[in-house]
Amino acid sequence: MQAWDVVIVGGSVAGLRAAIAASDEGATVTVLSPTSPSSSSADAMSCGLAASSGETDSSTHAADTKRVGADLCESDVVAASTNTAVELLAELERWGLNLRRDRNGSPHLGQLPGQSNPRTASTGDSTLREVRSILEEQCIKRNIPRRGDIEILDLVIDTGRACGLIALDIQSGEVFGIQAKSILLAGSGFQSAWNGDGIAMGTSAHLALRSGIALANLEFTSMHPLTVAETTLCLPLDVLGSGGTISDLEGQPLPMDDGPDALALAILSAGGASLDLTGIPRSDSPWFAGVAATLSSRCGIDCTEQLIPLLPIAGSTIGGIPVDVSGNVINGSWDTPLPGLFAAGDAACSGLHGAAVNSGDHLLGALSSGMISGTSAAGHASSSKHTASSAISVALTDAHHLHDSILTEAGSDGASSGAIQSKLASTMRTHMGSERDASGLSNAASTIQELQEMKVSITDTSPVMNTEMVSMLQTQGLLSVAAAAVSAALAREESRGTHVRTDHPETDAKQAKHSLAGNDGSVTKLTLRS
Predict the structure, then answer these.
(1) SS3 337
(2) Range 351-380 average pLDDT
(3) Which of 114, 80, 55 has the alpha carbon at shortest distance from 357?
């Protein structure tokens, strides 16, 4: 049985940064991901990194974050993240990030929706790709092994602490156990529940639910305002900081002061909008050459001469596994951390974003939470011992039985995973979109329950590279998280962020700060630390 100090589940930006932090603290670390080690599918950042390097201090940045987050942000988390933003940006530069620069040689800062001052540093349209590449290089320098095609089947929690996990090697079909002093969940969000693209399936959130950990704030979903209409092509917000403009269908400019999600809601309310990139200066155009090429090849749009039709889709999810300021997962009560279990990035609900994500804070949150949780996980590992090998063996035996039974019962009867995901996406877009009411949410809950009870067809009986089985497991997990999200949306009668309750327009904002949705669909309202 493998044994590690820290096991990172998910090869996201947050997961890679956590691995680096844990390794620098002296821990033995490995990163496990269901996709290839260099895949960016676990990340959904829409722009560059927000950092107050051009401001006196980070107070305005923090104020903008809390304002856009509809006053549901945790002040201490916001302060910690915004205070470290400049340091994180400088760290990426030291590691080789080739930022856009102004005439003075300082990082070029774009003013994006929700920002009072120019604050977003980027590499144009390639920021996420280049940040991931740099973090991967740093992992290689530290000899941190990263394994792809590994699907995590279960967490092993024994005597009130996380001690290991059960995994499936997709390529070989081997089911195996791993001992770990600390486990850090850093997978994607669950926006595939709306988009039906199978990219962000909420695996980390599902693992937490399976372990009896209630999830927080699942009702909040961040919309991407710069989505090309009738496609899933999302353009970086950074074009708005370089001369791009948005107008409604009548040619009137749309307000951007209240952040990307408010802008997305305005576009949806107007029935669509147009993005004009013809005003981007020629000197800035090379930084967005990828955008121009993609628009031309995928949509037949010449952005130097034509307007781009917009219609937002779900860009990322905000809620997830509740964590404290150290990244330690909270189980049931915000005063009771679960020893040995940590979360970061889109898998976690840290309180940074509140009810809506501000421009540049998504990447900031991934880097900041990754660094903090990775350091905390290594600290816990340094004072712990490997335990519960017998509990891991029992869980491994159960996983083998489940794996064998799935293959034994394989057949063409039932619905395909793709059909179920498509039905789920249609249901979520209809009833969990930008406007929600109790009747629609109840219908969504009933439909999801029906989908959960449906048999999923698997025609492949081989354990080797059985992607049908993996898709089935991921679909079942996504359904459970979607059910919890609908339950959380029903419980929150006020409107906050992109959670707009049309049946309670007068409800005031006096409800508790966070709602925790359990694996039985129940929701508990908790008031968190001030």
Answers:
(1) strand
(2) 98
(3) 114
| 444, 431 Cβ separation under 8 angstroms | yes
Three-class SS state of 256: coil
DSSP letters for 118-171: --EE--TT-HHHHHHHHHHHHHHHTT--EE-SEEEEEEEEETTEEEEEEEEETT
pTM > 0.90: yes or no:
yes
* Count of positions (residues) in the chain: 530
Best CA proximity match to 248, nearest among 227, 223, 222, 276 = 276
Sign of CA dihedral 321, 324, 330, 335: negative
| 213/249 Cα distance (integer angstroms) | 45
How many other β-carbons are positioned within 10 Å of the β-carbon of residue 442? 13
Pairing label, strands 313-317, 221-224 = antiparallel
Helices (H) and strands (E) in the chain — how many of each? Answer: 13, 21
> Does pLDDT of 368 surpass 80?
yes
* Residue range 457-476: mean pLDDT, rounded: 94
Tell me the two tokens of residue 146.
């990263």
Q: Can you give the pLDDT at residue 520?
A: 62
CA distance 504 to 501: 6
- Specify the pLDDT at position 513: 53
Pick from 106, 109, 67: nearest CA to 240: 109
Element (DSSP H or E) covering residue 7: strand 2-9
List beta partners, residue 348: 321
pLDDT band at 514 (very low <50, low <70, confident <90, very high): low
Alpha carbons 358 and 291: distance in angstroms, whole number: 22
pLDDT in tens, 279-312: 999 999 999 999 999 999 999 999 999 999 999 9
CB atoms within 10 A of CB 102: 11
**Tokens at 161, concatenated:** 């602490």
Q: What is the pLDDT of residue 516?
A: 66
**pLDDT over 70, % of the chain:** 94
Domains, the chain, in order of start with CATH, read 2-221+316-387 (3.50.50.60)
Is residue 297 left, alpha or beta, with left meaning phi > 0 and alpha meaning psi from -120 to 50? alpha
